[in-house]
Amino acid sequence: MNALLPNSHAVRTTCPYCGVGCGVLAEPDGRGGATITGDPAHPANFGRLCSKGAALGETLALDQRLLHPMLRRADGSLARVDWNKALDTVAGGLRAIVDRDGPNAIAFYLSGQLLTEDYYVANKLMKGFLGSANVDTNSRLCMASSVAGHRRAFGADTVPGVYRDLDDADLVVLVGSNAAWCHPVLYQRIMAAKSERGTKLIVIDPRRTATAEDADLFLSVAPGMDAALFCGLLAHLAGTQSLDHSYIDRHTTGFDETLARACEIAGDVTATAHATALGEGDVARFFELFRATERVVTCYSQGVNQSAQGTDKVNAIINVHLATARIGRPGMGPFSLTGQPNAMGGREVGGLANQLAAHMGFSPVERDRVRRFWKSPRLVTGEGLKAVDMFEAIERGAIKALWVMATNPAVSLPRAGAMRAALKKLELFVVSENVLSNDTVDAGAQVLLPAAAWGEKDGTVTNSERRISRQRAFLPLPGDAQSDWWAVSEVARRLNFGSAFDYQSAADVFREHAALSAFENGGERDFDIGALASLSDEAYEALDPVMWPARVGETRLERRFFGAGGFFTQNRRARFVAPQPPRLHAATNQDFPLRLNTGRVRDQWHTMTRTGASPRLSAHSPEPFVEVHPADAETAKLADGGFARVTTPHGDVVLKVAVRTGEQRGSIFAPIHWSDATATEARVGDAVSPACDPVSGQPEAKATPARINPVTYAYRGFVLTRRAITLPTETWLARVAVAGGLGVLFATNEPPAVWHKLAPRLMPEGAELAEYVDQSWGVTRIAAFRSGRLDGSIFVGPEHAPPQWEVVRSLFEKGTLTDRERRMLLSGCGGDGMAEVGPVICACFGVGLTAIRETIAAGADNVADIGRALRAGTNCGSCVPELRAIVERAAQAA
């Protein structure tokens, strides 16, 4: 495989979103953008992309980019400086604090968005030369329990299986994973196996998500009770003589104690059903399907990991696979679906506070090995502070310097509002970023370093199946932006560590990383890419996707682990781990009777600094919301489409209400994506509990005690504009990317007359204004036209009859309007010749609800018919459950 597609200018690179690691073909358009398609030769996706990957070309603009180093003045403003000034400030500040307070007074907070080369250099500087182990990563918030479970069971953070197992399995169990939305490319692989070879699918999740719609069995498990379900399964397998005692005896330890604990927690079907709040029939069916099917893959994700007992949940899943020897063979094994594009790469280099490097820990032998390889003057002696502890140490004043790279902790951490306030206490606060403004930058970052973004970066990432792929640059570095490994190396040189950081390219860093993995590695360490340590620059540039371990002569192998034992514990046996009795970290009570669950929506990513720039991706779920079961909505007097305040002991948010039958009674769900930069009072991290798993340090993001109360606004509306605007401070709002400008959806108690007076300030100078005002109904609609196009608009109406923005938005995006479109515009509804698309259902192809309904009315009676007519659902497939529901509703209405 070549870096360039033959007979084309398309560059082979890798998607920057989830851990699937999809190959991408990017063809620059010569104007700073690119055409994006899936790479059919990449073994992770074979050309398929999800809605987010397909829209990457919409996220490459430079208008919000941090392009130059900046220092914050005493008055809070930012001043542009050159790299020397910025790097001298960082190095001088770190040196002064370490000399005065010791290395434990400094910290780095890294990200699964970093490339492996960036991660490696940052970890090496801190742990090997500055002498601080306070290096952690946002992967602590999503994958740490999986890491801890692997290490407890296998002796190393080893993913046993590969994606091909999803093709070969006869049963796939998805636990705490809305894969249809969060890992859609892999989910479509499962759906293909289901269609082609009859693979059964079981979905285990408190919420009935889009993923559950295709399940042969859906288990709406009680929050936090996953471990009880798998303990019950282990007890059932033992009671039905379905264990592989030969494998247990030859390759494992601790089975008897673990089985005894499982029987205490959930000794039979009845006890399991009681513990998990499931029907006995459903539990029995799950147990029987698992017992009778040899080829089983159990995939799990954030619903398992993000828990105060996440590590026990992981080990409960691993236990049943070890006990049946369903591990490391085709079509079977436990499989962690990684959240970020390089969470795995960060784990390889030791980017977590409880790792050293190259999957080594802090034993004397391992520390000595790394010290000698790095020629380290000040190697750390033990673990550092994990993410939540790290930021609480900042809050206490114990950590005085922090360097954040490629992440937005002021949004994503639990107690995010308090953490944002804590950042202001830092003596030195450095942020390496792509964007000029986000919640973390705006929390008082003193030094801003412009980092290369996707499309400009050059290096490697590792996906969920241990496959290393190249992320290649296809755009030039804009302004003064630089790679993160370069910035860290330059700081190291200023700290007099230059000889150890004399890298001239990402390839230099990668070769050293690969060499460390093989250094004194006689096979006792799982992570070994020694065969790549001698790559030439040309070979590195052309590197094909390769799965580790990649030893000399084995670089093309697709290796599974543990089918015949060979674990990485001291005695080379796997360890069964007896979980603690499952319990939630905090009980609900009269003040907080509900549980707040958090997660992702289909078309957004993390804190929206990239996906939020895409009009396509912003169309499906434009406003922050909270899902509530109808019975809980009735109790709290909430209306679908209204607003509510969600309050927990840690903070509160105001969100739009979505009444959904798929939500369990007693639980509410809110997405994590919105921040102060994109909405008002919608930063859900403010309300999340800081309780952490005692083993992994991963915070509980799925079960915070909460209450919900209605919030009433008198008016609702929207603004469409082509320039930056400021709205009244008492307005609840959500900013939405639209083609050629910005949309703002709002709710307010300010009367329409206020918005009417505001119009001249929001509209472009010299524009032709048209307006419709009905004071008796509380309606104001104002549109500004210039050069034949809609250049801005304000629509306000009463709360019970808010203006619908889809038609106006489509006209705003269109360009030159016809006379009829101009005349009909202020009606706010479609007519002949009007572009009425309705809410966007398929983000990949921009297909709206109106077109789908028209296609059904014209004779389409299934999802395949809709796909043939409109292409909706034919790319990533994540909208297929929604399409199916639309078809079913139409059939019922008929």
Can you characterise this structure?
The chain is globular and about 80 Å long. With 894 residues, the chain is an alpha/beta fold. Mean pLDDT is 94; it is low at 830-835. The protein has 30 helices and 34 strands. The chain is 32% helix and 19% strand. A seven-stranded mixed sheet has the order 5-4-16-15-14-6-7, sandwiched between helices. Strands 21-25-22-24-23-26 form a six-stranded mixed β-barrel. Strands 28-29-27-32-31-30 form a six-stranded antiparallel sheet.
Set out the fold topology.
Layout lengths: L10 E4 L8 E6 L5 E5 L12 H4 L15 E3 L5 E3 L2 H19 L4 E5 L5 H15 L4 E3 L6 H11 L9 H5 L2 E5 L3 H4 L1 H14 L2 E5 L12 E3 L6 H14 L5 H7 E2 L1 H12 L2 H8 L3 H13 L3 E5 L1 H4 L4 H14 L9 E4 L6 H7 L14 H11 L12 H10 L4 E5 L3 H4 L3 H8 L4 E6 L13 E4 L8 E4 L4 E5 L12 H11 L11 H13 L18 H5 L4 E2 L26 E2 L18 E6 L15 H4 L6 E4 L1 H7 L6 E6 L2 E9 L7 E5 L32 E8 L3 E7 L10 E7 L2 E8 L3 H11 L5 E7 L4 E8 L2 E10 L7 H9 L4 H7 L14 E3 L4 E2 H9 L5 H8 L9 H14 L1
Parallel strand pairs: 6-7, 6-14, 8-9, 8-12, 9-10, 11-20, 12-13, 14-15, 15-16, 21-25, 22-24
Antiparallel strand pairs: 1-2, 2-3, 4-5, 4-16, 17-18, 18-19, 21-26, 22-25, 23-24, 23-26, 27-29, 27-32, 28-29, 30-31, 31-32, 33-34
Low-confidence sequence ranges: 830-835
Q: What is the general shape?
A: globular
Number of strands: 34
Percentage of residues in DSSP E strands: 15-25%
* Cα distance spanning the termini: 53 Å
Strand order of the largest sheet: 5-4-16-15-14-6-7
Summarize the structure.
The protein has 894 residues and is an alpha/beta fold. Helices cover 32% and strands 19% of the residues. The strands form eight sheets. Strands 5-4-16-15-14-6-7 form a seven-stranded mixed beta sheet, with helices on both faces.
